[in-house]
Amino acid sequence: MVRIGVVGTGGWGKNHVRVLNELQCLAAVCDMDRERADAFSKSFHVPGYASLDDMLKKEKLDAVTICTPASTHFQMATKVLAAGTNAFVEKPMTTTVRDAEQLIQAAKDANRALTVGFIERFNPPITGLKQMITEGKMGEPILLEFHRENRRGQNISDVGIVKDASVHDIDTACWLFGEVPKVVYARVGAAFVPLEHEDFAAILLGFSGQKTAFLVTNWVTPNRVRTLSAVFSGGVVDVDFVTQQTSIHEGAATTVPARPYQEPLMLELKAFVEAIQAKKQPLVTGKDGLNVLKVAEAVLASSKSGTPIYLG
Ligand SMILES: NC(=O)c1ccc[n+]([C@@H]2O[C@H](COP(=O)([O-])OP(=O)(O)OC[C@H]3O[C@@H](n4cnc5c(N)ncnc54)[C@H](O)[C@@H]3O)[C@@H](O)[C@H]2O)c1
Questions:
Q1: Of the residues 40, 90, 219, 265, which should be mutated to test ligand 1's pocket, given the most ligand atoms within 8 Å of the CB?
Q2: What backbone torsions phi and psi does residue 176 show, to the nearest 5 degrees?
């Protein structure tokens, strides 16, 4: 049995706790908010800790999933890896490229897996789209247009929307095209002032050849929008990340494949557990986490300078 501890049992971490319990892998929970740690410990019949150090010292764990705020990820993951434990870090992997590079080195030194919570790769319509690209069924992919919009959540304050939310679509674009962009051009801004960080972004990513991704992310739109329109030489595929519906448009015909709804977090954590069991690198690598941060930092730099940023 794979034994996994969860650190951070807030808005998102509580889902890790629930899903890992369903997978029979939940071994311990940790939250600096002692009441939360105790409540989850009681509900799920696992030991609860208020400090990661204590959990790592007292429990023999195969992995820890890190669901604390982004600004703590580097410190948390460094400790987890140094304890000889595999690390699943929620997105963004770290808040800076420098920390991401150090974390990759720490994983190498510890000979342990490091993965990042880019959950959309496990969302069934995105898995299906990746398969369509691999099989070449719709011809060449040319343009990916992402919309990730909703009114701002209350609990995110340590990073702006680019490092919090656009990172999902940056990773999906890189994964679908199978490469990292060559050029980044963006405008970001703060619609609801005073805000320390940006709350909207329009991002253009230029890949090899003519392949292009356009990402609109904001915490302004009142309703929740999570869509991708993928333009191929042979047609268009529209995806709704929330309903998981895929619509395939070829000429005048539209088909909507029937597919049962599956919880992306369940698929993501199941794949992580299987990778740990098989001692294999998880689908999302530390390098993927680093590449996304490089793009995210280029987005902010491009907006500041008003110029495209070319990635080496
Ligand atoms: N993959 C996704 O779709 C998705 C969705 C939402 C959030 N997230 C990510 O999950 C992470 C957490 O987000 P959230 O919305 O749950 O935040 P949150 O603020 O609701 O919860 C964070 C929890 O971590 C605890 N915590 C903070 N510092 C700690 C420490 N040093 N030691 C132990 N516990 C500590 C807090 O007490 C809190 O309970 C973020 O990285 C966020 O980007 C991912």
A1: 90
A2: -65, -40
